Amino acid sequence: MITHLLSAADLDRSTATLVLDTATEMATVAGREVKKLPTLRGRTVVNLFYEDSTRTRTSFEVAAKRLSADVINFSAKGSSVSKGESLKDTALTLQAMGADAVVIRHSASGAPHRLARWVDGSVVNAGDGTHEHPTQALLDAYTMRARLGTLEGLRVAIVGDVLHSRVARSNVLLLATLGAKVTLVSPPTLLPVGVGTWPCAVSYDLDAVLGAVDVVMMLRVQRERMNDSYFPSAREYARRYGLDVARAARLPEHAIVMHPGPMNRGMEIAPEVADSARATIVEQVANGVSVRMAVLYLLLGGKS
Fold first, then answer.
1. Is 56 a catalytic residue?
2. How far apart are CA 26 and CA 294, in angstroms?
């Protein structure tokens, strides 16, 4: 197993499959009366979050505690960081405390890679800038496999704000590794430079791809990261790239609808679609705990 999980590109096919298979085993813990394993007793996991997060931070905390690890939640707000402490100084402090794993979310792309140079423990990237979010890609792949049985040859459309999405990049890399065929669907203004080198196809027309996909993953329009106008209006975006009831009805009968959350209901996805039986949005949250348990177990379980 790898020492750190910084990018979906760190995972080859066998390692990614091992994580998904381990997550399947971890999922059985949720059904027990006592939802704990003694695997990481005596280990310390630090959640180092420089950006606000509810789902990801809580998911990692629950995952670590179910493995009996000690958990320290470190928020940039109200800490020495707000007084000007650098990432390196924070890393050295965590090192001195004996952190076995650091789960980091940071607004700067590449911050987890720098942190990995400064600490002896494992580093898990929980989202860095607009770069990557590998455990989200793993839980998405796990959800697809659980619903549809396989990832090999699966046709996946990732729709929306690709430019600002770390989820999109990680999903493209991981799904290509696992044999799925990915198409990015977005306005040209919301595609990153160099997207032509990614292992996927690109389309500007959502209606053209809907009838031939197994999975449609809607991305949140990240207005907080936008300094310019990338599309005329929210209404125009919803008209061209929103998954409304009429578009959802054109999906193949077996197709599923995904969203990493949080959602802009009524913009990228209609409430009726988000709450429908084909939507996996709540499942993705639940599966996130199992997948993150698997990641922490595989990174730390074999270490003395």
1. yes
2. 7
